[in-house]
């Protein structure tokens, strides 16, 4: 984890040497409220870039040490996160387009992803002024299922991908839960990626799936789980075997902000395209190596379903024994 932090920040050798500060006796309530929000946001950013929980807590308390971090040493990773948090809160107060401001920053891609994720996760509370202004200007898409616009996007993407990628509604998700659950896993931290992979590998082996097929499927699983870690607070993995339809399904759910409807044609049709610098080859690879990719997405979270045909696996077993 320390190596990951060293990649994000130029100077990661400094350990946090601050403790909970004493508040000035005459500090106004509004300043305390502001410092609390800034500290909370910095703690979240620290979590998203991989800081230890103790370091995140120290960040929160350090927010109360001074009113502004505008003149802080940006080589200090902790104060830099507080500075960025301060900037985001200022942009909100000015009703600026925060995602656009973040994308214009000259920062490490991991930091940029963390800022975008923080905005998406807290756009209705910490950044409500900016978000409401964007909604008023029609710059935000609601992704409402069965809305005429959503239906058009669903049909066009489905046709353009040769029926490999399908947008589905929340009600339709339950249809794909039919079958026998043979593996479950929780996704909260980066360390959960290899743990979920190993758990899925063992479960697929117990289902007599061939080694070469397992390796291909696990590659797609890693793509899906990595996306959950980067853009949501937490998620879960469920593997289902549907004997009736001769399918195995990977269901990856998260509580993130969802996918922008208007970006989906590019993310599904253009290899290497990604607005968040993470799912570049993701959907393209998933469509190539699975039977079908299904996606339900909303501002409350997303459900990604990868389906795999197991009839070929059964044919292979018969040929091997015959």
The residue-averaged pLDDT reads 84
Tell me about the biggest sheet?
6 strands, mixed
Give the SSE string.
HHHHHHHHEHEHHEEHHEEH
Distance between the termini: 50 Å
Would you give the CATH topology of the largest domain? Heat Shock Protein 90
Q: Determine the CATH superfamily of the largest domain.
A: Histidine kinase-like ATPase, C-terminal domain
Regarding CATH, which class of the largest domain? Alpha Beta
Protein model, in words:
- Strands 1-5-6-4-3-2 form a six-stranded mixed β-sheet.
- It has 14 helices and six strands.
- The protein is of the alpha+beta class.
- The longest helix has 21 residues, at 29-49.
- It folds into two domains: 2-136, no CATH class; 148-321, Heat Shock Protein 90 (2-Layer Sandwich), CATH 3.30.565.
- 50% of the residues lie in helices and 13% in strands.
- The protein has helices spanning 2-8, 29-49, 53-62, 77-93, 98-103, 109-121, 128-136, 148-160, 170-173, 192-206, 211-231, 264-269, 282-289, 311-321, and strands at residues 165-167, 180-187, 235-242, 247-254, 292-298, 301-309.
- This is ATP-binding protein.
- Keywords: ATP-binding, Kinase, Nucleotide-binding, Serine/threonine-protein kinase, Transferase.
- One of its GO terms (molecular function) is ATP binding.
- Residues 193-307 form the Histidine kinase/HSP90-like ATPase domain.
- InterPro entries: Anti-sigma-factor_SerPK, HATPase_C_sf, HATPase_dom.
How would you summarize what this structure contains?
With 322 residues, this protein is α+β, with helices and mostly antiparallel strands. The chain is 50% helix and 13% strand.
């Amino acid at each position: 984890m320390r190596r990951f932090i060293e990649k994000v920040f130029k100077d990661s050798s400094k350990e946090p040497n601050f403790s909970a500060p004493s508040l000035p006796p005459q500090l106004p309530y509004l300043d305390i409220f502001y410092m609390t929000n800034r500290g909370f946001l910095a703690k979240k950013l620290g979590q998203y870039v991989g800081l230890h929980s103790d370091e995140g807590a120290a960040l929160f308390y350090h927010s109360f040490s001074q009113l502004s971090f505008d003149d802080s040493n940006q080589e200090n990773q902790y104060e830099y996160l507080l500075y960025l948090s301060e900037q985001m809160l200022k942009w909100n107060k000015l009703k600026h387009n925060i995602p656009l401001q973040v994308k214009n920053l000259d920062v490490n891609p991991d930091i940029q992803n963390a800022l975008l994720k923080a905005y998406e996760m807290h756009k209705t509370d910490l950044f409500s002024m900016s978000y409401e202004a964007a909604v008023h200007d029609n710059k935000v898409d609601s992704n409402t299922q069965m809305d005429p616009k959503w239906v058009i996007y669903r049909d066009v993407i489905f046709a353009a991908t040769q029926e490999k990628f399908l947008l589905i509604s929340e009600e339709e998700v339950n249809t794909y839960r039919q079958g026998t659950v043979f593996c479950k896993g929780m996704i909260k931290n980066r360390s959960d990626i290899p743990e979920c992979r190993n758990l899925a590998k063992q479960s697929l082996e117990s289902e007599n799936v061939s080694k070469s097929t397992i390796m291909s499927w696990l590659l797609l699983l890693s793509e899906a789980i990595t996306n959950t870690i980067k853009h949501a607070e937490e998620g879960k993995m469920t593997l289902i075997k549907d004997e009736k339809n001769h399918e195995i399904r990977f269901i990856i759910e998260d509580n993130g902000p969802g996918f922008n409807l208007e970006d989906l044609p590019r993310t599904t049709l253009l290899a290497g395209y990604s607005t968040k610098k993470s799912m570049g080859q993701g959907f393209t690879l998933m469509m190539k190596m699975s039977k079908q990719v299904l996606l339900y997405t909303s501002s409350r979270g997303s459900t990604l379903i990868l389906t795999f045909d197991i009839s070929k696996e059964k044919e292979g077993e018969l040929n091997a024994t015959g």
